[in-house]
Structure formats: C-alpha cells, structure tokens
Amino acid sequence: MGPGAPEDGGWAVTEIRGEILQALRQAGDRFVSGEELGQRFGISRTAVWKHIQALQGVGYPIEAVRNRGYRLREEGEELRPEAIQAGLATNVFGRHMTVLETVDSTNRYAFAEAEGGAPEGYTVLAERQTAGRGRRGRPWFSPPGHGIWMSVVLRPTFPVFRAPQLTLMAAVSVAEVIRERAGVSVGIKWPNDLLLPDGRKVCGILSEMSAEAEEIRFIVLGIGVNVFGRVEDFPPELRGVAGSLAEPGSPISRTALIQGLLGRLETDYRIYQNEGFRAFRERWERLNVSLGRRIAVQTQSGQKIGWARRIDDDGALWVETDEGHLEKIISAEVIFDPGS
Ligand code: BT5
C-alpha cells in the first residue's frame, strides 16, 4: 500500500481507481455494491462513489443504480485497437498494436518486444501505467483512462548522435496534433516538454535507445499526454506543475488524438530521416516557449544560467551565459526563470 489520504485507506488515488475498475471488470454483468467495494479497499461508500464519478468523467461507462451498485458496460471510449486502426492513415505506425489495461511502463513493454523483433511502427498503449517512467528514473503519473500512454518502436538508419533530435521532432508533431485536434495552444519547452499556456506540463516525451557502437538497433519513442484531469486528480507534488488538456467529461476523443498522433509522427519521421532536424526548425520555433527566456540548464558538466537565444539545425540550444559565453547545449534539464 502506498501513502495516500486517510479516506482512501492508504491507497494512492491512481491505484485505487485501477483496482475498482478491475473489480468491476471481473464482475462482468453483475452489479457490485458500493459497500462491497468499500470493504474490499478499506474506504467509505462515499469515497467509492467519488472514485466512480472520476472514472465516469474520463469516459468509463459505469452504471450507478441505487440499491444495486455499479456495473461497467463494455462500450464507450475505452481504447480498442480495432477502433484506433479503423481510422488510421498510416503505412506502418500502429499497424501492429497492443492495447493493455494495465502495464508497468509502455516503454518497458515496447522495448522488450523490440528486442524480440517487433517491427518498426509497433505501438503499445495502456489505460494505466503502474511504473510509467520519465527521464533519469523519474516517475510518470499515469492514472487509468486519463491520458495517452503510448510507445512506438522505430528502427532508424541514422547514426546514434542524431537520436536526441528525434525527441525534438516528436515534440513538434505532438504539439501540432494537440493544437489541431484538441484546440489547446500548447508550447514546446526544450527539449521534451509540452506546456499549457499557463506553463503547466501536459505532455512528456521519452525516447529510449538500444545501440551497438555507432549503430542504432531500435528506439522506443514514448509519449505521455494528460488528456483528462482536474487539479485534484494529480498527486499533491504535481498540482501546480502538471495539467491536462481538458476536464473529465469533455468531448475529446483519445482514439482520434491517437490516430492523429500516429499519422503525423509517421509523416514527420520520414521527413526527419531524409532531411534531418533542419526541416523542423521553423515549426519548432513557431511552437517554442523557451527562446528569449532566462533559464538554468543542468548539464553533465554542471549548471549554467543565462538566456536561451536560439536553436540550430541540429536541435541544439544556444545559451548566452551570465559569464558572457555563448554555449551550445545538446542535452540538459532546463528550468525557467531561476532565482539568482
Ligand atoms: C518526461 O520525463 O517528461 C517523459 C515522460 C514520458 C512518459 C511516457 S508515457 C508512455 C511512455 N511509457 C513510459 O513509461 N514513459 C513514456 P521528465 O522530463 O523526466 O519528467 C518527469 C517529471 O514530470 C516528474 O519528475 C514529475 O515532476 C513530472 N510528471 C510526472 N508525471 C506527470 C504527468 N502525468 N504530467 C505532468 N508532469 C508529470
């Protein structure tokens, strides 16, 4: 049991909602009473009802009937491979696909499948991740039904040193699709974050690579987008820094977003392979919220503070440091507006 508010019986919110869903699935057509669920998870019936409402809000078709309890109907906006593939305009991306109810990490799963020979474009999606990962071992919060937790296997022929640029390319593709299909003006924070207009992070991208010497065997491109969620749906440490595209219950279709993402990513990946990041630079500049900002960059060789000045054809960020040097940053953590 993880830490949590007392009314949640010590469970983390994301865990308990996943467990409630699982219990309803197992019950099939049968109604499960709030009392039974409450006893099972050590929480009150009111707390059960609160979680059910949250799940309904993100699209789970749960019937609630007085004196009988709850039942999960098997339709609605769950992620289903047939529905996603039916509207897919791609040749390879998403043509092989696994959609899981629960997984530790779609990146971990896709990586293992790629080692076993999964082809380029193979896509893994999950309704929830129990150990979603960010960079440097950081966790990625991935509650059931609230987002798009997706990984795509790539088998590029370009050299290892170009791999980080792929994340920048993906940020452009994802930002454009979100703007077009969800109508939210997200901006790109170099290198791998998409931010809402108020600065909260709504999407993170994590590419993980398997390489031998200078040759890439494969890359797993992992994308996490918070689609539905209110402030209180995030754990306390993420409130204020994380945000979602929409409130639960909003008429955004995750299926349509995924179709859009896979389509745009496939097209852009082809362009990138032929022309490199240069072909994306203008699109990146239009979407970026980093340039002109005062930033702190944490690189392997230490911290530097200064102004983000420009991005070059290789996707490197050029920073004018307070010492008066112009430095080229290829990989780093960036903090906006650091205190002095
Ligand atoms: C990232 O790492 O932003 C990359 C996240 C990639 C997640 C996807 S989901 C599908 C695929 N499978 C995986 O296992 N991962 C990928 P980073 O820049 O290190 O940011 C991590 C930090 O973002 C954490 O330390 C938190 O502060 C914050 N964070 C965690 N969960 C978040 C969320 N859902 N929304 C916004 N911020 C979050």
UniProtKB/TrEMBL annotation:
Example GO biological process: regulation of DNA-templated transcription
Record has DNA-binding as a keyword: yes
Binding site for biotin: 105-107, 129, 133-135
Pfam families for this protein: BPL_C, BPL_LplA_LipB, HTH_11
E.C. numbers: 6.3.4.15
UniProt KW Ligase keyword: yes
Functional description taken from the UniProt entry: Acts both as a biotin--[acetyl-CoA-carboxylase] ligase and a repressor.
Name of the protein this chain belongs to: Bifunctional ligase/repressor BirA
Taxonomic lineage of the native organism: Bacteria, Bacillati, Bacillota, Bacilli, Bacillales
